[in-house]
Amino acid sequence: MELEILTFGQISDIIGKSTFKISYINNTQDLIENLTNEFPELKNTRYIVAVNKHIVHQNIQLNPGDVVALLPPFSGG
Amino acid sequence: MSEKKVKKVFVDGPISAQFIADSISKHSTKKEIGAHSIFLGQIRNDVIDNKEVAAIEYTSYEEMANEKFYEIREEAFSLYSLTCMHIYHSLGLVKTGEISLFVFTSSVHRDDAIKACEYIVNRIKKEAPVWGKEIFDNNEYIWKKSEV
């Protein structure tokens, strides 16, 4: 029962890795709280959350095995 | 005849002038085309805190980006009357003066090609999960902030 976490850009710098697994947490809000406790610098960083490649704007239920990505502001092109 | 299949967008490193020239010449057999519109994004030597940008290193959430590029492509085809469309975006290191984005639209008359090209570039800048790390000549870096 795990979640896969992906990070990009400055979020990877803060967390120190770009992909890792954590024990299952059943919604995005609790997951973010959990990560923010571990990495307080996330509080000062802008990012959005994508679950299984879809951007979510509010708290949603997670299922074991979901891929949750923390995406800082895009800067491609 | 429209090209709507999923196509590879990301290329490793810079997009060469030769690649762009070859892309253009491949369209000479499509004689219904009357207009091409091309956007080329080039790495600029921004100066930030007295340090000059030497290169940008691009990373992406590739799986998500490829879905987004596909969605942008489909929507551009539905909004504009295009004969074909190509999008190429660099990953990895691209130095100042080199090309990192190549958007190429073709249509019977110029209006559709020009408008679609701008539409696609704007959506890529806003919606594609791609990040640029601006690397200075002293090897320090900052994460690029997009102007959109």
Based on the model shown, name its key terms:
heterodimer, A: 77 residues, alpha+beta, Ubiquitin-like (UB roll), five-stranded mixed beta sheet, B: 148 residues, Aldehyde Oxidoreductase, domain 3, eight-stranded mixed beta sheet, 3 helices, 30% helix, 36% strand, elongated
How would you briefly describe this protein structure?
The complex is a heterodimer of chains A (77) and B (148). Chain A is of the alpha+beta class.
- Largest β sheet strand count, sense and barrel closure of chain B: 8 strands, mixed
Number of helices in the DSSP assignment of chain B: 3
Order of helices and strands of chain A: EHEHEEE
Kindly estimate the percentage of residues of chain A that lie in beta strands according to DSSP. Answer: 25-35%
Major beta sheet, strand line-up of chain A: 2-1-5-3-4
CATH superfamily (homologous) name of chain A: Beta-grasp domain
Q: Would you tell me which CATH topology of chain B applies? A: Aldehyde Oxidoreductase, domain 3
Q: Could you spell the SSE succession of chain B in H and E letters?
A: EHEEEHEEHEE
> Based on the structure given, which CATH architecture of chain A is correct?
Roll
Overall structural class of chain A, as computed from helix and strand content, comes to alpha+beta
Shape of chain B: elongated
- Find the structural class of chain B using helix and strand composition: alpha+beta
Distance between the termini of chain B: 34 Å
% residues in beta strands of chain B:
35-45%
